[in-house]
Design brief:
single chain, 325 residues, mainly alpha, three-stranded antiparallel sheet, 3 strands
Length: 325
């Protein structure tokens, strides 16, 4: 239950991302600056925290052992996650981006067979490949139905072109974030805490943010002071606080497929927090009856998903497979 509570708290801070990204977009700010500035601002903030905890040297040692894996999985987990989310905010309201983002719950479950763990058995050391947690997936389908209903309600107000540009990037991000996060957990094997891992992935993803920033400077110039301030707020609330909370929650649940799926399911709380924030902050925000119905399905699916994963049968969904060393 502790991991679930931390996950819900993280969803509150993550909601800041969707609301402020839309606010920056509506104010004429570039989605490239919205994405790049978040991680550029995150770097010194996290660096101070890790240095204060005297754990920077250990992080550097870990990164030097597998530099290319750090760069690759950080590009997937941070770059291919956040840049598409910012791009989608240009074409969709914040509540719809947040709602579509809940596809990550299904994506996370579908990614399970890509991971395994090493176990000591009577037959020696074996690698265990995990199966898709189909029991939790049943409730995930309700979430998927809710997302589809929201998209359908929005399709009556925008063109198919804009709907696609506001949806497809979010689905890409929904696969990228859990994949990058889990691969980094697998690589670190518990040797780094959430602060170290977040800082390490921020450092390793800097090339993509610097390339995008350089392009934007040459093509359109520097960001406005207003966008820089809003991006800094996103960096603090979502990039640092929410990310560290979420990584802490996933670390607590990493050894149990069902619990890990439940922690990822708590991020559906972002939908509610984002909708409330958008209605309060962004003028002219509207949501149709169909959109509200879809949101209800998403939230109900999240709650049932958590209930089944927490209180249901706790038998292992793992499949033991002998894999040559």
């Amino acid at each position: 239950m502790k991991a679930i509570g931390i996950g819900i708290l993280a969803s509150f801070f993550f909601a800041v991302t969707f609301v402020l990204n839309k606010l920056m977009s509506d104010s004429g700010g570039s989605w490239i600056w919205s994405a790049s500035l978040r991680y550029i601002f995150m770097l010194p903030l996290l660096l101070v925290v890790v240095l204060a905890r005297k754990r920077f040297r250990k992080l550097m040692k870990e990164m030097c052992q597998h530099p290319w894996q750090w760069v690759w999985w950080s590009f997937i987990g941070f770059g291919l996650f956040y840049a598409p989310l910012c791009f989608a905010s240009v074409y969709s309201p914040a509540w719809l981006v947040a709602g579509t983002w809940q596809f990550t719950i299904i994506a996370g479950s579908l990614l399970v067979p890509l991971f395994h763990e090493t176990l000591q058995t009577a037959d020696g050391i074996v690698k265990v490949r995990k199966r898709i947690p189909f029991k939790g997936m049943g409730m995930s389908l309700m979430i998927l139905f809710g997302i589809g209903f929201m998209e359908w309600s929005q399709s009556t107000h925008v063109s198919i072109h804009d709907l696609s540009l506001g949806t497809v990037p979010v689905i890409i991000a929904a696969f990228a974030y859990p994949l990058g996060n889990r691969k980094m957990m697998e690589l670190c094997e518990g040797r780094l805490d959430a602060y170290q891992r977040t800082l390490g992935m921020t450092i390793a993803s800097l090339p993509i943010w610097l390339i995008l920033s350089l392009y934007q400077i040459v093509a359109h110039g520097l960001p406005s002071a207003n966008q820089s301030l809003q991006a800094f707020i996103v960096a603090v609330f979502s990039g640092v606080i929410a990310t560290v909370l979420f990584f802490t929650a996933t670390d607590l649940a990493k050894d149990n497929v069902q619990q890990l799926a439940t922690v990822e399911a708590t991020q559906s709380g972002e939908v509610v927090f984002t909708l409330i924030g958008e209605l309060l902050i962004i003028a002219g925000t509207k949501i149709s009856i169909g959109g509200l119905v879809g949101l209800c399905f998403v939230v109900i699916g999240m709650v049932l998903h958590s209930f089944i994963s927490t209180h249901g049968e706790r038998t292992s969904d793992n499949e033991t497979i002998q894999i040559p060393s």
